[in-house]
Fold each of these.
Amino acid sequence: MHLNNHDLSGELLFLKAKATKYAVYGVSIASFSVAFATLLVSYVMRGDISVDGIMPGQKGNIALWALVSNGDPRHG
């Protein structure tokens, strides 16, 4: 099988579009996880979901720091 530059270009565009789609899925899942964990911490700490519970939860919960920084300690 012999591929020319046009065939390779089309194939690379297809692979790039597929990779972009999965990257968007990953960012969406990560964002949802951080938001859900933040709301859950607020509920556990204060018994309701409010700004008064979210702010202390963000300041004092190291697990949320790890989620927000994506596990990279340089971003914390």
Note: The mean pLDDT is 77.
Amino acid sequence: MFLCFHIYPHILQVVFESPTEHPNQRDRPKSLHFQVSRASLTNVRSVEHSSRADLAKCIDMYQLGSLFYGADFPSLRDDYHVVTDKFLKHAAGEL
């Protein structure tokens, strides 16, 4: 699998290209493109605004959204959660 990141002035684009050919499916796309206008990526934790309490508050606001945690379309009750239990326990200080 090939993964390509493009960072433009206002848009982050991630492209997943498939190395597999499917000759019997001519209309099948050869790549999957994701574009976001806002993204936050980090691997450091500073003292200001990056405590576990801030993380827990952010996750709590995220879970209020119906896109991933709702019981109606587009999500279902038995769908996998986007935020894993291990990460939730870390934010709660249980690990």
Note: Residues 15 and 33 are 5 Å apart (CA to CA).
Amino acid sequence: MASENLDGNSIRKIQNMLRKEQTGDIRDTQSAGLALKAYKTKASWMMIMRDGKWTIAPFEMFTAEDIPELRQLVVEARQLLKEGRDPQNLFDAFREQRDVALAKNKAAVTHGIGKTWEEVRDAYLAWATDHKEKDTVRGYKSALGATPGSVLERDFEPLHRKPVASITTKDLVRVRSNIIERGQGDLVRQANLTVAALKACFSWYLNQADSLIETSPAAQLSKALERAKKVKKSPEQERTFIQDEIGLLIYGLEFATNPAARLSLMIQLFTGQRRITPLEALKSDFIESDEYGMIWRLDDKVDAWRTLPLSPTAKSAVESAMALTRSDNDYLFPQQRAYKIGQTADGHLNERTVSTVIEELRGEGGILEPLPFSPSTHHLRKAFTTTMIPKISKFVVDGNRLTKNDIKMITHANEGRDTTATSVYDKNEYLDIKYKILCEWEQFCLEAYYKIREKMKHGK
């Protein structure tokens, strides 16, 4: 055993020992524990202490230029030993990170002290669920790449499993750039939504008592520097479903392999709601009615309460969904699987599961493939408003003809929690009008469906 100030000469000595197949070690006099050790045919950077020996890295991984960093690494390792923690995780992380501070943060996560990006993100979303609007939380979940299998999840690769204390502004810039590059200039708005969500998430974490960061890496993160591309679309590309295409949609839904997703889309279509609204519906929100068959007392994404008397087709879809639901879940469309090991499946059906049905219908060989626009769940609601607004003036309430703004009584008017709690049990003029509007819309849709079904039956 020799002791000296480790430098380039020490490295050459170890190289000579290897050529001669000699064994031995050289220990550093500046940082107690740091050593170079030769084993005849190979050598290693080591930490050798009275309490034990640890391999830092293979000999060839570092040069004389890395010795100052290795000395600092051993200082941190000795501190871990004082705290009763194994330093091997620190050495393993250093080989990957080549940076003592980053390795220290990663080792802290391994020892249960620090947190990874995913842990902080999920904790923030859990907090936001209790303190922010549902729609805000849903937007943040998507913008932060927390939706399993989404393209945004892949955009967050620079942060995957990274200790939050090691995340830099440059890491966040790379996330933003991934979104911009993927969209080839068309996703500037999405990138800016992600920037806003990152700022909110790190601001929240910075202000937690157990936070391990002193400043937010998102503080200096700007919105996308690129300008959004403005692509002028033709009227055909911007329109929604016309009547015959609604028939194609309903016919195509009959072959959807996920019955819950299919029924959710049927309820959305026949009630003119957003994709999320049927998914968030509780079984208790649907009340049998002598006057209207069934009434849906709904609370949508912006906490707008209203009652909708369901048309026969929508009522049938709800009843079919009730038959498929689970007794251990309050939602009409229960979550179908846990997203992570150990989690419960007590939420509602994933929005992406529903959207996938439409994507398959518009994909290659799908019944909606020939359409000149790219159908999505958004177009179901748009088709309802586009079709029924021109017809709305035929309906009268209190002697007054309805105007185009009155379509909101179905799509997003807020009648109040207390009012809807009692109105579901009474016959009233507003429910009558809603029922007439929705039944006329149902007739419009089914007329197209029966026409398409006959064509398909005869191979036309």
Note: The chain has a mean pLDDT of 87.
